[in-house]
Amino acid sequence: MDSNIRNHLKALVQISIIDRDFGEPERTYVYTIGKANKIPEEEIDGIVKEVLESKDNEDVNFAGLMTEERFDYLYDIVQLMKIDGEVFLTEIKYCEGIAEKLGYDRKVVKKMASRIYSDPAITGNREALMKEASKHLK
Fold first, then answer.
1. What's the pLDDT at 56?
2. Are 134 and 67 in contact (CB under 8 A)?
């Protein structure tokens, strides 16, 4: 499996459990992203189990990602943060930390969160969102 996809899924699971609840909306989103990237369900199960059993969040490495891939990560973590309809300060801080690791200013999380809806079926204008996010690249 591509290590970038593995890292992406690990980051998504990590943000999913920050509020101590890996609920159905989060689980569905993580598996949807995994399957969209042609990751077998058993492999996704393994990643989820690994993160859930881990005592500490492992540092996720985003080296070597292209700009569009960085945006996809950012978009997915913000979407996942909002998917259960509750946003906790710990989730915001985690997203801001990931945004920085992706090369963005922390403020991008607030900008993106205001324009990404909690329902994945309602998508914003990705091009406009990507353009807005690129203003926050360091």
1. 67
2. yes
